[in-house]
Amino acid sequence: MAQNRWTKDTAFNILKHASSTRSIKLRDIAVSIVASVSGDAIIGVHFDA
Prior knowledge:
This protein is mainly α. It contains two helices and no strands. It has one domain (1-49). The radius of gyration is 12 Å and the shape is flat.
């Protein structure tokens, strides 16, 4: 988002489009982006119990 200077709405729309065209849940795409940026192999989220 910051790298491309997108607004939060534009970034979310891109995530939604990627999710629908790849048949992957949006949250899974977001988790993989955060993992790749942070360098962590596995990112835990509060709903993964």
